[in-house]
Every structure is written in structure tokens, then in C-alpha cells.
């Protein structure tokens, strides 16, 4: 099923305005880059609220709108599990890992591994980190392409190229400062859009009581069934995501580490992390999941509107098309999905470039000037963008 | 319908292992910083860490009770708790 609202010049106007605004804002900050310290860490001057919101925007990718809305449609409120089990590691993160990497003044995870172990571990870590980041970029682009393809009517590969180039341009020129400021804007947009679609969905159904009563008890439970089904059970999600995923993302993801290192101080990095987990993520999980809950309620009460057989992966756009009261609102919701992708994509591009420059180029270069380093960092960002597009094409054809 | 494996079993499992991981982390940082120094210098943060654990587990607890007993009004408690937590953490934790 495709959304009922057809795209018109108004829809395109809003979407183009939004993307141009983000691009312009990103380019505006390009003038601040005088060194790789600026380009990768924004001069290490940011306050907790900017860092916290940009961490949220980095964590919430366009695949989040597809994945968690899909899980919300299939299983209900337990789609929130993934975002609500990060607190267990906070003592070690806030008072162990963050002070260690901040005061060691490392620029990347591989660099930490060399200081802790030796250069072989650094090389291995560099290789796996780049592989992970490029894969992350490719999957994010492919998810966005799949999500937008039925709405825009373009082929997936065109969408991937257009979005990647926009993000690639402002990251390659603007660096971390552009990322943090645009992520703040995009984080606000995606949270607001997520809450808006929930409100519109409740209004469409006729009120919260109808929404609540349309869901089964199991739809309303916050944790999944203990050991079934195989693709979404509690034990699997807890260990795969709550334990391994949380540690991997918060401790070992270069993009997240660069947020900590861009903070004004360790205290600001701690506050940003605390606010992200306790305040921003709970809204974030509602924002990315609720289209699925609304769809489930509609299916249970009016299966002729959303059929049980609807593809769960397209449920976000289906619900957005049904509940959006006007084309402007629909365009805004689509812009939020684009925002989610770009805010993850930009961080991963910058992180990949940081690893390449810090762990491959600098150990082999003969004391390059700061100007040369900055130029290499910008060129590397552009190359990473192109490689990410290639990865997305590859995944699309597998 | 027996909902234990969908409600209280995962809750008990998550917060038993969670308490083990969280408590282990807290113990490790107390040992690393020194008990007295950590308590003296980071008292507010210790309360924040413990509050965070209680707060997240309470959200799951209330959601489970609300689902099993058909009490959507309990979500108001979650909302109020959320707003107070956001306000206090943003204003008073440095």
C-alpha cells in the first residue's frame, strides 16, 4: 500500500527547503575549520545540551524509523526495548571510559588500542572500524532509499546518491562543527515529527481510549516474550542489543567517541550522556516506534484501511500518508526521516575520515603541515562518501 | 492466557542481570577512585546513577502493570516522572 497523498510542488518545495537549509547551515560552519582539531572535534568546545542532542540524532538513523515502526506494528510497545536498556553500563562509561579517553587525548579508538597494547592491535582495530563504519553508512543509505522510494517515485540508487552527496558536501567542508549544529536541528525535527505522527494517529483513531483498547495486552507489554519468536524475543534483544550493542555503540563507536572528545570538559560529556539516555532516548523510542503502534491499532479496528498483510518495513510511510492532515505535514514527516538519515550519515562519514587520517595517513606521513592534514581530512571525507554509496549499491544488489 | 513469560519473567531477568552489571560497574569505580574520595567528590552523581536505574526500571514496571490490569491512567505517572527527571537533571546536575 502506498500513501494516499500524492506529491505535488508544495511537497517538493518543503522538502527542498529543508534539505537546503541543512546544507546551508552546514556550509556556514565550514569557515571555522583551521585545523584537523577543528575538523574532527570542533575545537573541543561544545556544551552538554548540543552534544546530547547530537548523540541522539546520531543514534537514530532512518533505519530506526523503518525497523522500530515495523517491530511496533508486529509486536507493540516492546519495540521500545532497544532504547531503554542502556543505563546498566553508565557507571563504567561515565566514570571509567569517558575520563580515560578524554584525558589520554586519543583521537580514535585504534589509537587507544596502540597505547594500551601495540601497533598490531591498532592496525586490526583500524581495519575493523573502517569496515564497520562503511557498512553502517551503506545500510543507512539503503534503508532511506527503500523508505522513500514509494513516495518520491525515484529509483533507490538515485535517492542514495542525492542524499549522500548532500551530507557528503557539508561534512567534507564543515566537519564536526557542522555535524553537531545540524544534528541538533535534525534531532529536534525528528523528535517533533515522531511525536506529531503519534498525536495525529491518536486523533485519526478518535482518541487515546480507542487507541488503548484497540491493542491487545501483549501489544501493550514493554518487554517481548521471553524466548519466542526467534527474530524478536526478549533474551535475544537483551544480550544482542542491551549488552553487546550498548557496549559496542557507547564504548567503541568512533562517531560516539568523537562526541565525547568534542565536549568542553569531561563533566559536559557526562551530562550529555546522562541526558541522552534518561531524557532524549525515551522520547526518541516513542518517536521511531509509534507509527507501528498506530498502524496496529488501525489494523485491529479497521483492517480495510491497513491490512494485516501490509509490509511491516513500509509501515512508517503508510501511516504517515494516512494520518497526515495535509500535504505540508506529510512533507514534514518525510523530511524528518531524511533528517534521521543525514544526522547519522554525517557522523559516520566524519568518524571514518578521522580513523583514516589518524590511523593510516598520519603514522606514515612525514610530519605534514596542519594545512595539509586538513586538506587530507576533507578529501578523505569526500572519498568515504563515495565508498559509502558504493556499499549501499552493493547491499542493494545482494 | 499465561502472560508470565511475556511480562514478569523478562522484567525479572532484565533487572537481575542489569543490577549485576550496574552494581559491578559501581563497585569498580568506587574501588578505582577510592571509596571516600568518590563519595566526597561525586555524591550527586552517585545519586543520579542510582536514580537512573530506579527510574528506568520503574517505567517498565508501570508499563507492565498498566498492560496487565488495563490501567492506561498509570502513564500519567510515567509522564510526570519523566518531566521531573528532565527538569531536575538539566538544572541541578553539574
Written account of the structure:
The complex is a heterodimer of chains A (398) and B (94). Chain A contains 16 helices and no strands. The radius of gyration of chain A is 21 Å and the shape is globular. With 398 residues, chain A is mainly α. Chain A has helices spanning 9-28, 36-41, 48-59, 62-75, 90-104, 109-116, 119-152, 156-205, 208-214, 217-220, 234-252, 254-262, 266-301, 315-323, 327-361, 370-397. Chain B has 94 residues and is mostly helical. In chain B, helix 1 (8-33) crosses helix 2 and helix 3 (43-68) runs antiparallel to helix 4 (74-92). Chain B is flat, with a radius of gyration of 17 Å. The N and C termini of chain B lie far apart (48 Å). The model of chain B has no long low-confidence stretch (mean pLDDT 95). Classes of the chains: A mainly alpha (398), B mainly alpha (94).
Give keywords.
heterodimer, A: 398 residues, mainly alpha, 16 helices, 77% helix, 0% strand, globular, B: 94 residues, 83% helix, flat
Strand count of chain B = 0
Structural class of chain B: mainly alpha
Mean pLDDT of chain A: 90
Give the structural class of chain A: mainly alpha
* SSE arrangement of chain A, N to C: HHHHHHHHHHHHHHHH
Approximately how much helix is present in the residues of chain B? over 70%
| Global outline of chain A | globular
Radius of gyration of chain B: 17 Å
Weakly predicted, low-confidence segments of chain A: 1-5
Mean pLDDT of chain B: 95
Oligomer: heterodimer
How much helix is in the residues of chain A?
A: over 70%
Strand content of chain A: under 5%
Rg of chain A, Cα atoms, Å: 21 Å
Biggest pleated-sheet summary of chain A:
none
